[in-house]
């Protein structure tokens, strides 16, 4: 690779220049090619700058597709762990709904992410923004897979739906925290001048994700029907779950 | 002083959202019919998508009506605002002619429509998660009020962001920061008063569960937008305090 180091936006100061981060591509390791699914996973975990560099200067389609496909496959695996709590139709319903829910959430939030990035001064193109969102999703799902053995252990030894729901939520919060950190790092190298809009977008993403868990309920516990008929706000649904009498059986 | 290009720069969504002063100044100074058509098209698509998303709560017919009405309201408000501010700008101390005022106001509305268009999937998701409209159901009244308040919030965010984005441009049109702020305040005030009342007259955009789907309300000229927002807030308060 002989591509030059990148100064994302010459002229106006960016968040990257303000925080004195090294210029993207200055280090030869940033410019190394990412090959295959294992390369993508390794890049998002160990060399996020390499992934960000390739999103800006490689062939974006070559990276965005693997990012999304691997993220959907991994979240489906985690969904099976979620479904294993109740078994039955949840073996396939939970992974399908969780994977579809994550994909729909990303599709709903992508246009506003692009708008907030541009309003924050970033000259990033839509496919670069989609790549950064793909990186967030992949890192999130990788962390969830890391938590999967713990989730499985608890799902086999507890009877409480509320307890399992809380545990999955806790793992999701940790995963989102690291995913968002990747997203901010990416946009710092995409010439972002103000992080205010991006912070607002993170709030929107969290709200949409949480509401998606209620819109596609039940994800944890028995499922008499595939999708709910009545509409609820996620906080109201959680309160219902917590205040409901103790379930006789999870299955 | 602004260095103006000899030709109008190409329409660039990313640069518009970033509020690139040189490019926007070029658009405004070298205003062309092609540029106006592109901006109008963007308003129709962006605001139309948002209108369709919010109207889809009541019925597909309401979605169509709102998709037609919302861009129309934005365009009429832009014309009214441009006429008034074309006269106000020189009095405030910003060197904008009527034609430039129209171009600047249309640019800010284009930006607002792009933001609204990006919010339309979020609005669609909100509609999906609200109780369906059922005549006489308390949940439907609360859902309608939630829709009113959230859409007012989204439109206000888009409008204010779009206007503030052009602040640097107004400053560079001469007169410094203080006149630019005064003109921005005039823009926002006219948008708030004219836009809100026009949208009230062109109601319904969401549609109530106990009323038939229609393009315009037969009592269009009674009441005002601010009373409706207060009423929606009151209904929501009553619903959740039961």
Gist?
The complex is a heterodimer of chains A (251) and B (242). With 251 residues, chain A is mainly α. Chain A has helices at residues 15-18, 36-46, 48-57, 60-83, 90-119, 126-157, 161-189, 196-215, 234-243.
Features:
heterodimer; A: 251 residues; mainly alpha; 68% helix; B: 242 residues; 9 helices
Number of strands of chain B: 0
Major sheet size, sense and barrel closure of chain A: none
Mean pLDDT rating of chain B: 87
Which protein chains are joined by the largest interface, and how many residues does each one contribute?
A-B, 21 and 21 residues
What percentage of the residues of chain A does DSSP assign to strands (E)? under 5%
Distance between the termini of chain B: 61 Å
What's the SSE blueprint?
The complex is a heterodimer of chains A (about 250) and B (about 240).
Chain A: H1 15-18, H2 36-46, H3 48-57, H4 60-83, H5 90-119, H6 126-157, H7 161-189, H8 196-215, H9 234-243
Chain B: H1 13-18, H2 21-29, H3 33-55, H4 60-92, H5 98-129, H6 138-165, H7 167-172, H8 177-201, H9 225-241
Describe the structure.
The complex is a heterodimer of chains A (251) and B (242). Chain A is an all-alpha fold and 251 residues long. Chain A has one domain. Chain A has nine helices and no strands. In chain A, helix 4 runs antiparallel to helix 5. With 242 residues, chain B is an all-alpha fold. Chain B has nine helices and no strands. The mean pLDDT of chain B is 87. Chains A and B meet through helix 5 and helix 8 of A and helix 1 and helix 5 of B.
């Amino acid at each position: 690779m002989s591509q030059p180091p990148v100064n994302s936006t010459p002229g106006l100061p960016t968040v990257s220049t303000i925080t004195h981060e090294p210029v993207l591509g200055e280090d030869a390791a940033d410019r190394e090619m990412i090959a295959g699914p294992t390369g993508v996973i390794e890049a998002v975990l160990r060399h996020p700058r390499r992934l960000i560099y390739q999103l800006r200067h490689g062939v974006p389609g070559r990276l965005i597709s693997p990012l999304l496909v691997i993220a959907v496959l991994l979240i489906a695996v985690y969904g099976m762990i979620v479904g294993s709590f109740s078994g039955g139709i949840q073996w396939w319903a939970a992974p399908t709904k969780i994977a579809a829910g994550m994909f729909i959430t990303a599709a709903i939030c992508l246009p506003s992410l692009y708008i907030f990035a541009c309003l924050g001064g970033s000259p990033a193109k839509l496919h670069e923004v989609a790549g950064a969102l793909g990186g967030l999703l992949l890192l999130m799902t990788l962390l969830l897979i890391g938590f999967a053995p713990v989730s499985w252990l608890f799902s086999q030894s507890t009877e409480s739906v509320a307890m399992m729901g809380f545990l999955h939520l806790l793992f999701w919060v940790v995963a989102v925290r690291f995913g968002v950190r990747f997203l901010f790092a990416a946009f710092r190298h995409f010439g972002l001048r103000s992080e205010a809009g991006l912070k607002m977008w993170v709030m929107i993403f969290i709200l949409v994700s949480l509401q998606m868990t209620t819109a596609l309920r039940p994800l944890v516990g028995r499922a008499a029907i595939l999708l709910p008929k009545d509409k609820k706000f996620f906080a109201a649904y959680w309160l219902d779950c917590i205040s409901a009498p103790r379930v006789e059986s999870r299955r | 002083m602004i260095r103006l290009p000899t030709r109008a720069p190409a329409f660039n969504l990313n640069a518009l959202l970033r509020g690139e002063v040189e490019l926007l100044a070029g658009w405004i100074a070298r205003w062309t019919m092609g540029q106006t058509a592109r901006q109008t098209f963007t308003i129709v698509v962006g605001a139309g998508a948002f209108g369709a998303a919010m109207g889809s709560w009541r019925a597909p017919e309401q979605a169509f009506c709102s998709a037609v009405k919302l861009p129309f309201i934005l365009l009429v408000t832009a014309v009214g605002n441009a006429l008034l501010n074309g006269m106000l700008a020189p009095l405030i101390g910003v060197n904008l002619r009527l034609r430039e005022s129209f171009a600047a106001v249309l640019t800010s509305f284009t930006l607002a429509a792009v933001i609204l268009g990006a919010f339309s999937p979020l609005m669609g998701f909100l509609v999906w998660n609200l109780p369906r409209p059922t005549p006489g159901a308390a949940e439907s009244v609360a859902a309608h009020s939630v829709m009113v308040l959230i859409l007012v919030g989204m439109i206000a965010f888009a409008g204010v962001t779009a206007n503030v984005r052009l602040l640097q441009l107004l400053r560079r049109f001469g007169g410094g920061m203080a006149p630019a702020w005064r003109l921005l305040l005039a823009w926002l005030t006219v948008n708030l008063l004219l836009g809100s009342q026009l949208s009230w007259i062109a109601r319904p955009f969401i549609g109530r569960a106990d009323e038939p789907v229609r393009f315009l309300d037969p009592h269009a000229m009674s009441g005002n937008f601010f009373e409706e927002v207060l009423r929606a807030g009151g209904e929501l308060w009553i619903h959740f305090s039961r």
